[in-house]
Amino acid sequence: MAVADWASLPVDLIGRIADRFLATEDLDHYMDFRAVCSSWRSATADPKADPRDPRFRPRRWAMLDEVHRSDARLFVNLDTGRFLRKDLPLLSSRFYLVASAAGGLIVLAERTAPHAARILNPFTAP
Which Gene3D superfamilies does this UniProt record tie to the protein (predicted)? Predict the structure, then answer.
């Protein structure tokens, strides 16, 4: 039985698959897809290169609650009903969670400067 070499998929095919994830606002799947290997990462757009790119903004997600005794948060996709648990290590180390915002973004306050607010996209955060 032959072993598939997934890293050698054609760049245009990788791009088309990635575009489908973005078209259906599956940002979590898109980020997982990019993480498969370096060739897939280099064939797809990097959300950190232009964080204002509307393709990387969550739209139909809502944060439900924190996961007990962890930095994870539970999100639900309002269109599909799909649940997603995201680990957000920034919450324990540097920031407080202030509120959830439209589409799935979250508002943070820095622990050392609580009056400085930041917006975090949990789907593209490290």
Answer: 1.20.1280.50
